[in-house]
Amino acid sequence: MTRVGILISGGGSNMVALARDMTGDHPGRARLVIANDPGAGGLLKANALRIPTAVVDHRDFPKDRVGFEAALQAALEEARIEVVALAGFMRILTPAFTAKWAGRMLNIHPSLLPKYKGLHTHARVLEAGDARHGCTVHEVTADLDDGPILGQARMDVRPGDTPQTLAERLLPLEHRLYPLVLRRYLAGDRTPVMLDG
């Protein structure tokens, strides 16, 4: 049974979707949720799911990414985590840290990568006039929102959509895609998954 650690920064809805899926014959179990913000709402949700939690507050490490990541690594090692899932974790990780987890760290990003890496993806989709939008699960590498694509979920952009309506419609697709990809990934299947919503 693979020990999975989930990193969050906010409400943790994708963390909940992952954790709820990791039951029964699933090849993994959520063994730790780490937040970089002690006020992250996902910590309460993890507690309700009886998953151990930790806080590594990035504000305790001003201008010291190495120290912040050393504390992250220590928490992951203490819980004997084998695979890390980033689920709304809003910190950019250094190449040194991602190298330690090469092939063992996944992320979900709210765009159809390689389009719109970084922030404000919903607004950028609308500004570009795209007809389709979606989310991507990928392996984490040293480059931001890069790495092999493991799955995508796509949906139509509707007339009158705003960044908020796109985000609201995309979230349920994220909650379907990420657990499916993680389950397959832990079972050794790296074939990309494609969903339409």
UniProtKB/TrEMBL annotation:
The record marks 145 as: Raises pKa of active site His. SUPFAM superfamilies: Formyltransferase. GO terms for molecular function: phosphoribosylglycinamide formyltransferase activity. Residues 3-182 form the Formyl transferase N-terminal domain. (6R)-10-formyltetrahydrofolate binds at residues 65, 90-93, 107. One of its GO terms (biological process) is 'de novo' IMP biosynthetic process. PROSITE patterns: GART. Belongs to the GART family. This is Phosphoribosylglycinamide formyltransferase. The gene is purN.
